[in-house]
User: Fold these one by one.
Assistant:
Number 1:
Amino acid sequence: MLKRTHTCGDLTLDHVGQTVTLNGWVDSWRDFGGLVFIDVRDRYGLTQCVFEPEVGAELQAAARELRSEYVVAIRGVVAPRLAGKENPNLKTGGLEVRAKELEVLNATPTPPFEIKGAEANEELRLKYRYLDLRRPAMQQVFIIRHKMAQVMRNTMTAGGFLEIETPILGRSTPEGARDFLVPSRVHAGHFYALPQSPQLYKQVLMVAGFDRYFQVARCFRDEDLRANRQPEFTQLDIEMSFVEDEDVMTAMEPMVASLAQEFTGEAPTLPLPRFEYHDVMERYGNDRPDLRYGLELKDLADLAAETEFKVFQLALENGQRIRGICAPGAGQKYSRKDLDGLTEYSATFGTKGLVWLKVEEATLTGPTAKFFTPEVQAKLRERFDAKPGDLILIVADSQAVTSQALTNLRTRLATELKLYDPKSFHYSWVTRFPLLHWDAEEGRYAAEHHPFTMPLAEDLPLLETDPARVRAQAYDLVINGEEAAGGTIRCHDSKIQSKIFSLLGLSPEQAEEKFGFLLGALRNGAPPHGGIAFGFDRLVMLYAGLTNIRDCIAFPKTARGTDLMTGAPGGVDTRQLRELNIRLAD
């Protein structure tokens, strides 16, 4: 084999005159009769090789047989390209290798899709993932992923954190999503669970006195999938002792700034802005708002009460919300067909209608404008600071429906109206989430984040009287409308933890059976502690400019949880099942 001396991205004009050997894949080939050009590619770059008549008919004939994605070794002399033939878009675009020897290391069939062409159907890409990952654009994503892990590890180490691994095979505990279960061969009828997160282990590490821990951790959740969710994923997991929520956020901000500087060239101003949960829900209808643009939601109940519009009157009688947004310039840009499309879109989030009003120079226009007196119209303009050409959209419904509809309309309008630079980044913290929410289906409270979160000190009495009003020492990092990280201060007091378990419907016996090791640890000198977990895959997706998390995971699952390349999940033979004491239902 002709072993390579240089990669396809190494060569510069300083190498002119040297004999080199390149190994790689044929990116493209061009036959001009007397000259055969072969572009050879590896993950480092691309180099043009030329087979001239002087190499002989046999070698030129062999070069003419090459096709895309053949694996080749080419030895030749580095030379400058002819004047005017340089390629300024390539690092190696000012030179070529004049081939003297050729070895075909692997002749391949025609690929099912073009490696360097337009993107193929996603199912085809996932089935032939080894070809999809060969594409330079995909390899660049994983270079970003590698660099991001290095930045994280270096920043954590510099901050005094220790990297400690926690088990993959653990005990099933009710933390929110369904567990992936692994049957034990040795202990018949018993199961391990793959970790949804290292949550309990890292708390135990704080009890053990390690003070600052981190781990680039693999996590598993058996839940419904979507564009930014996978059954197995990676997170940067962090825990700290003797801290309050502000300490954790402040400690994480240098890493956030380092990542931003590395991958966007611009670090955000620290400290990052903080917003409380109830504030962002009221202003944006969403606990992870994209703050690259405005379009704030406004409460319009007082103005609605001044109208004779029956829809508004009925909503007020039923205790519902009346809220709206104002889209700059949309009144001029959107046709009636466009407005009907917005109405249909809002209906997908449960609305029974969408009131729209175009802002003209002297009045508001629209099908319902007649119900708004000149005085109310003036107040609407003032509330939204609306200008001629703007569009006011109003929804009357429950808190949940108005939030869902308006936050999604907000996102759609901002994109369609180009209200922000899609390459820009905005970072903020959202804090003080509810500790619990009522699960009507289960008939009990459920944890908003997880069961191990510490309430705000001033809200502790409400655990006995009004649990739904208790706020948590919880905080999320939001980047461009995505939850990039989430964390809480943990409950280090076993009595408070036991009270929370009881609110979640666990009897003392059940809590001890499921979480006895944690309660025991809390009773044995647990320090105040808290932490956070960064969605590693999601961060890669954001900084690589992707919209689908599958494109930044080397071997992802489909929306149905299958691996099209390997065929997982697959069946197993009966002998394996017998060893695990498992019998499948008929």
Number 2:
Amino acid sequence: MLPRPSHLFILFSYLALSAVPFVPLMLGKPMEQPWQLLGVECVAWVTVWALFKRPAYFHWLLVPAFLALPTEIYLFVFYGQGISTHHLGILAETSPQEAMEFLGRKVWSMLAVMVGVAVWWVLSFRAARQTRGLDWTGGSRWLALFALAMLAAAAAWGYEFGIDAAPERTAASTAANSASASMSASADDSASESASSHAAVAGAHMLHLPGPALPYWARLPVDPGQFIESWPFGLGARGYDFYKERRYLSELDERSASFEFGARQVDGGQQPEIVVMVLGESSRYDRWSLNGYKRETNPLLGKESNLVPLSDVITSVSATRLSVPVIISRKPATQSLKDGFSEKSFLTAYKEAGFKTWWLSNQISFGQYDTPVSVFAKEADVIQFLNLGGFTNHSNYDDVLFEPLKRALADPSPKKLIVLHSLGSHWNYSQRHPKEFDKWQPSLFGIDKPVYTDLKIKPQLNNSYDNSILYTDWFLAQVIADLKGTGQLASMLYVADHGQTLYDGSCRLAFHGHNTDYEFHVPAFMWFSDQYLEHYPSKVGALLRNRKAKLATENIFHTMLDVANIRYPDDKPSWSFLNKDFQVHKRVVDSYGWTNYDNAKFKGDCREVIDKGKPQSQDK
């Protein structure tokens, strides 16, 4: 007997929802473990159908999937990834007005699709209510429930007590897996290290009960970790992840909730003033022609007369989530490996001094590597996260920050602090700039997922990196032009969070996390308007005197307050390189302990930083 049209409509609807994660395949793009994902979705559907028996009883669970469908497909088509915790954070933080400004004309097509999807859900729900032909009854349902219970028990056992390694694992495969892991472990901040499928899995031991590990043959046939990527029910797991991140963010925020600097601007008056802080990403000092690089990577910044490069700035840690808190707060470098901080950032000090503050970011807002930065961002009066693609995928270029910057500059508030957090030169380098900046060839431009561990692409990788610096030069020059256009007292301080190692010479390392000087020595500069020079001549004089001084990102917080002559009871003028009383302080970097950077040697072509004495021990 042929199925009824209503049955086909319901089954087609569920199949269409389940096919959403496979959109990349339809677009001709590769997917990791598609069969695992398909297996997880099959198990999820069997579980829901067996538990609820009738589609009409579980169709309400699909409302989030239907509503999220247009957004998910939009992100897949334009950014190569689906909805993540970060995207949920953007939705939670973005007002309807900001969303319409960002989407522009696309908003109407998106709304039309949303209406169509809503109608689709209503029609499929009506069909599910009116039919009983898809009810799951009889012995097969109870058999399925029993099998699911066994799978759940095996999963719980493996989670608590671990899973044995495969018996056929050889020493050769162990060596191969170890070599592969060492090559890829530091691809970027957001890369996760996954164990080989043949490695033993450690148990959580949350119940503290004795028990043997689950035999390898009894492990689940599918990876439960794929559930979060599945549709439609995986959205629930993403929502739970978002909830956990919000709680974590709230816990971090509570540590400094009652903190105050008692800050005030000295001799500020009512004169309009604009201070801009640009946080760079993965930018390397010696790849800037402003700092002597042979390639002209800074053709525009090199022409700015009121721009002062800082030649000797080091960051203590080569990871964004650890380095940025040291830059924007008084968090000591030696505490950078610890989560949270009991104080707030310079954003709060500026607010206390009468400034309106903005945090405009092309990075992401939530996640293991991003929430520690977001806790400081939330201090701002205006917060916008504009990155829809993440780090390692296609994403917005940094020029997405221009429009919100222009709106901030046009704001009637006389005193403004604007923080721009750029994506800079984060891997994949060739996806950080448009085609017109693909100057040095051959490059990785147009290659979706290059194999970064392949030394054969060293020339392309380096060319693409230089092209990303060229784009950063253009981006920063446009920001300066906007500041000049205000005709006001204005200044801008730029500093990168960390650098990159790029298969230098015979060095076989790339990216960051390798304890190399290429990652610790970062580019930084300050630009000021003619009005700033006229108003603060002594600060500019100190800047020129200290442009070659031994500086660290620990100096940035104190300098940022000194930029606008902001003082507070226990401030440290001697830590600001704009101050006549500036003094050099000990600089340490995270290299086999806290290594004294100025008492270190640089080993080999990787320029690994090795303390000549004994490094200071670390608390994590």
